[in-house]
Every structure is written in C-alpha cells, then in structure tokens.
Design goal:
312 residues, mainly alpha, MetI-like fold, 78% helix, 0% strand, transmembrane, nickel transport, membrane, MetI-like_sf
Length: 312
C-alpha cells in the first residue's frame, strides 16, 4: 500500500509541475506584452524607459526557464507574488476566496452522491419498469441542460416566484442550496447512469448464484456483493467529476454572486493579471490533484487488485 501511495504521489506531483510550467509558458509566449499590462494596471505611462524597467523588475528579460525556476522557488515557499490589479499578495487572496469555492464544490459532490447513487441503484433493481424509465429520462434531461441556464431557472422559481431561498450571496446555510444544485445537476445525472450500468453488471455476476444457494439474505447480497462491487467504476469517475464540478462552480458563482475564487479569476482574466492567474491555476490544479489522490486511495481500498498492480 505504501508503494502504491508513493507511486501515485510521485505521478501527481509530476502532473502538477507540468501543468504549472505549460501555463507559465503560455502566459509568457502568448500575444501581448506582460510589461505593458503591468504598466497599464499600475497606471504608469508606457514609455520605452518604463517598459525596460518593468521587464527588468519582473524578470521578463531573462530566459523562460530561468523565469519559471525563479517563480517555482518562490511558489514552494508559498510566495506567489503580488496581484498587479489589487497589489495584495496572491497567496492571501487565494486563501480568502478559495474556501467559498471548496464549500460549494463539496456541497455539489454531496448532492451528486445523494442523487446519483440511490437513484441509480433504484433504477437498476427495477430495470425496464417505470422507475427505470423515469430516471433515465430525468438523466437525459439533466445532462442536456447547461448549469448556468439551470441556475437562472432555479433563481426564477425558488427565489423570484416562490421566495423560498436567497438568490445571491453567501449569508447562511440556505444560500448554498441553489448554487449546489445548479453545479451538481449534470454530474449527478451522469453518476446516476453510471451507477445504474455498474449495478446491472454486478447483478449478472456468476458468484451471486452461489451466494443465493448458500441462503444469504437478499439485503446482504445486495449490500456486500452487488452495491460494494458496483461502486468501483463510479468512484473512479468521481475523480474526473471533481474537475467538472470545480469548473461548474466557477460559472455558477457568477450567477449567484458567490464570493469564490471563480469570480476572482474572472477579474484577473479581464485585467490580464499574470501573478493572479498563475496562482489561480496552481491552486485549482493542486485541489484537483489532491482530490484525485483521495479517489485513488478509495479505489485501492475497494478493489485490492488496484493496489497490488493486478489486472482487473
């Protein structure tokens, strides 16, 4: 198990390093002049002397690899520089905005699991009957509706028309309900279909006949031999859904005026705030990597063949 954990951590750290370098290079080699954007945000006239001084102070006159290694050295010490737009340390701004996004993403994961897993099992156990048909139709509609459009519909129904839930802000426990539903709807429907398919596959396994012949109770067979084995593929897909939920949360934050890192990143994009964008990508990639590490560990716990390196 320790070898499995060390191998996963090494791979994820390499992924984090590659993503950070690629994005760093894209910002430096893309269109536009970072020094010019810096002077514009600092409200300094872009004279030739000012541009030369800005390039020297920002390190833009050095080779790309040297610039990246300098940035990486500071990043390892939790120093991501200062935002060109707000002049505040990027690390402080991430620490201020990221918890709200993580809270929304966690609530969306909870909604996805509470909807996708039970309804997927329910549909599989009643295959080709009305519960199965109804859930499949619901899943098809759910994956077809964009989350930002669903967010507007939820606000119109539950906030404007019925007045049950707040439409914007992060003021109390009820304020997260609509954003979480809007963020999780598509992923919950995908999870529902995956759980249904996985449970149907587990129900066809030959060892269930032996379990029935031994006289095991139906609840024991479903719990230990069907549901537990069927959760391996959905648990694997959950790692991919984390990135989707984080991206969806950033879109939904704009609709519900949720004070998360997505709105902050959008402001950084509009102002071409390079330090903020680099810090944002590093923070979100780190969250994604850590979540996938947890999913890998859960997968290895559910399926010993994974941690032993055996074929499935």
């Amino acid at each position: 198990m320790l070898y499995f954990l060390a191998r996963r951590i090494a791979g994820l750290l390499l992924l984090l390093l590659v993503v950070s370098f690629v994005f760093f290079a894209m910002l430096r080699l893309g269109r536009g002049d970072p020094a010019l954007d810096y002077l514009r945000l600092a409200q300094i006239p872009p004279t030739e002397a000012a541009l030369a001084a800005a390039r020297e102070s920002l390190g833009l006159d050095r080779p790309l690899v040297e610039q990246y290694l300098t940035w990486l050295d500071h990043a390892l010490r939790f120093d991501l520089g200062r935002s060109w737009y707000t002049s505040r340390p990027v690390t402080q701004e991430i620490a201020h905005y990221l918890p709200a996004t993580l809270q929304l993403a966690a609530a969306a994961v909870l909604v996805m699991l509470l909807v996708g897993v039970p309804f997927g099992i329910w549909a599989a156990l009643r295959r080709d009957r009305w519960p199965d048909n109804a859930t499949r139709i619901l899943a098809f509609i759910g994956v077809s509706v964009p989350n930002f459009w669903l967010a507007f519909l939820l606000v119109l129904l539950f906030s404007v028309t019925l007045g049950w839930l707040p439409a914007i802000g992060r003021d109390g426990p009820t304020s997260i309900i609509l954003p979480a539903i809007a963020t999780a709807a598509m992923s919950a429907c995908v999870m529902l279909r995956l759980v249904r398919t996985s449970v149907l596959g587990a129900l066809g396994e030959p060892h269930l006949r032996f379990a029935r012949a031994r006289g095991l109770a139906r609840r024991t067979i479903l719990g230990r031999h069907v549901v537990l084995n069927a959760m391996v593929p959905p648990m694997t897909m959950l790692g991919l859904h984390v990135g989707e939920l984080l991206g969806g949360a950033m879109v939904v934050e704009t609709v519900f005026a949720w004070p998360g890192i997505g709105r902050w990143a959008l402001l950084a994009i509009q102002n071409r705030d390079y330090p903020a964008l680099q810090g944002f990508v590093l923070a979100m990639t780190t969250v994604f990597v850590l979540c996938n590490l947890v999913i890998d560990l859960l997968h290895a716990w559910l399926d010993p063949r994974v941690r032993l390196g055996l074929p499935a």
